[in-house]
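ESCALATION

Customer reports they have been waiting on this structure for their group meeting. Please prioritize. Original submission:
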Amino acid sequence: MAITTEENRFVEGEKSQERKTRKSVFIPAFLVVGGGAVLGIVNNELLTEIALKGFEGSLRSMGWLYQIISIIALIVVSIVTFSKVGNIRLGGDDAKPKYPFMAWFAMALTGGIATGVITYGVNEPIIYFGSIYGEMAQTGIEPGTSSAAIFAMGRSMYNWTFIPYAMYALSGLVVAYMYFNRKQPLSVSATLTPLFGEKVKKGIWPGIIDTLAILAIALGLASSLGAGLALVGSGIETTYGIEQGPVIWFLLALLITALFTLSALKGLDKGIRNMASINAWVFYVLLIALFIIGPTLYILNTTTVGMGYWLQNFWVWGLDPSSIGGEALVMWWTLYDWAIWIAYAPLMGIFLAVISYGRTIRQFMFINWILPAVFSIVWFGIWGGTALFWQSNGNTDLVATIQESGAVAGLWTFLANLPLAAIIIPIVMIALILSFATAADSMVRAISTLCTVNIRFDEEPAKWKMLLWALSIATIAFIMVAFAGGEQGVDGVKYLAALGGSAVLFVFVLQVISAIKMFFIDKLER
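Update from on-call: job pushed to the front of the queue and completed.
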């Protein structure tokens, strides 16, 4: 039976009562985010040093746990998707989906990947190929060879496809199932009730768990937006000769913040849905254009053999805490990626849950796990394959560009060499801006939801709350870029966010165990 509005309230009381702010979550999260920004302005080097040391320590001591729990998450979502559990409908047998297939996929895809695939679709394969930071040192593969190209493609796909999206999908499914089918509150802490019972929703634990989730993603958004301002700014400087600086960064920050703030304030149906659809179509156009322009046969061959190499090495890569591949490859790429994905997973899960009412669990996994992973395979195959072809054939030296100008510098040099560069570069800039805005839009809504008492899935958080978080995140990003050293100025916030992800790791581990208990031990709730 479909869940009614009254059943979704979970507690008695008026609507105004339900919209009260969760002070135990909102206040500490806001203070820590603000405190990190203040420390970054006063002494960014100290912030970076503290956060970096803490983060490095967590990766070195818990790399094994990151790897094991990521593989377990992949196995769990695989079984859930293709077993009878997949037939369960979120919201009951009579629940009807709110969003059509394409709109739902657009929101799920663009709300999560932000600018990652655009930024690293070119740069990551090239960095591996040239072993720019020593990634190939312990692999036995000679940089710059055809074997290095195959390794680069396979490793990039490993880092960006089925394992990370399994993390998002598992968190989202646990939230959705607990909320729609077991009638628990819409929160991260409620997903742990199968393990700890009702006591996990009482006392200090809900505040601690949900605050950790907010901190990780709020700081992560600030660092991503800050790095994005520097990235788009460098593209404007490289392409149009307009020197980047505080004025350019401020204008970009103003544009992006206005986009995601207005979208968030318009609500899920009129805001996020429309912007996500536009963003997704920009992605599709870029993929088709580059596939036609690029070395099509090389793309197809390298993608195919790259997938084969990835599957051949799956278990070695999946269970290596850096003992085999080395820290330059495993710790600073794979484990760092896992930390960021896990940091985002609980809050991303709330967003994915809210837009999935009325869908079966199998449909949920298809949209949030399988299709995004396939999209990333196609994206890295086309963008990364083209970049590797050009590098191997001497069309342009992207390795030298990255060595001289940093890990994300290869993108603009790559785009400048495309036949239709004058058209494609502005489209890529638009895609970057829309990607930041779409991801921030979905996460600001999720943060505000978690800061609200007993909010329903079909209810919008208070506008002042969304506005406050949006402006706070944008302000931190701009200040760190403009007054704390450009792109390097966001390092402190970036490592602080990643360190927060290390704390969220334990929440994610519990969510995985909770999912195992719910779907394979407890009675299934239809």
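Sent to customer with the following note: Residues 7-520 form a domain with the Amino acid/polyamine transporter I fold (CATH 1.20.1740).
Escalation resolved.
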